[in-house]
Design brief:
The chain has 14 helices and no strands. It is mostly helical.
Length: 269
């Protein structure tokens, strides 16, 4: 009886997994078919074509969109790691007045939906003259979530290691760089993946803050394709595949470290 229940559980999990994978299979196959009908779907491989991909890259603008997304995603990861590691180290290991209260206020910002601050953020960015610039697209990416992850990881490092480094004359910055960061690489990789995927898939903010095609990002190419080619489902799916692949590959390359980092941060309180 127990064996049957295990088999039934496995079958349910396999069925759920197939349901999750099916949209991606649909997206890839439709991107390789010349069709204007979203319901003209089959698993037949006889009519596959790369026409849509050639059409996208022959336009010229998709290359600029892709470059912008790459710059924003990697710059966002670098900036987030810098701010989160330094702030997380300060909140975890440095004792100063109001440490816990400031950290609590920072964490409370995670309860505020990002949509709520779009209007005030736009007003600030426009006042600074940063519309249609990389600064406007990159600087808002670091959040309290990254500080929380790094603080939790750094809390688990024994204070004795820091004291030993201080006896040797190391400053706080050198302690962070040579002692702390090598021990929290898993958490940093986890944060890098979250930040990269979030920055890459960000749609609303780039749509609001960019009016020039030269500053648009790859997710916005989907709306451009719909406007230019109306109901060309295959072309839209090809653009979706191009948008989907980079963060997916980025995750696959760091998958093992990502799982280790999530487990590590989940066990520390």
């Amino acid at each position: 009886m127990k064996k049957l229940s295990h088999i039934a559980g496995d079958l349910v999990l396999i069925f759920i997994a197939l349901l999750c994978v099916l949209p991606f299979v649909y997206m890839i196959l439709m991107s390789l078919k010349s069709t204007l009908n979203a319901y003209d779907f089959s698993f037949s491989l006889s009519s596959l074509t790369t026409e849509h991909y050639r059409k996208i890259f022959s336009g010229g603008t998709i290359g600029r969109y892709l470059l912008n997304s790459i710059i924003i995603a990697f710059a966002g990861v670098a900036l987030t790691l810098f701010t989160s590691c330094t702030a997380g180290f300060a909140f975890a290991k440095l004792k100063f007045k109001g440490n816990d209260k400031i950290f609590l206020l920072l964490i409370l910002t995670m309860l505020v939906p990002s949509e709520v601050i779009l209007v005030p953020l736009y007003i600030v960015v426009r006042g600074l003259g940063w519309v249609n610039t990389f600064k406007a697209l990159i600087l808002p990416l670091p959040t309290a979530f990254g500080v929380f992850i790094m603080r939790q990881a750094i809390l688990g490092i024994p204070n004795e290691l820091m004291e030993s480094a201080r006896i040797d004359g190391a400053s706080n910055l050198k302690i962070l760089w040579t002692v702390i960061l090598p021990l929290v690489k898993s958490a940093m990789l986890t944060l890098s993946i979250f930040t990269f995927i979030g920055a890459w898939n960000n749609f609303t903010w780039p749509l609001i803050i960019t009016t020039n095609d030269t500053m648009r990002t790859l997710p916005l190419a989907l709306t451009t394709m719909k406007a230019q080619y109306d109901v060309d489902v295959g072309l839209t799916m090809a653009c979706s595949v191009i948008t989907f692949l980079p963060p997916f590959i980025f995750y696959l390359l760091l998958q093992s470290k990502f799982e280790a980092g999530v487990a590590l941060n989940g066990l520390k309180g």
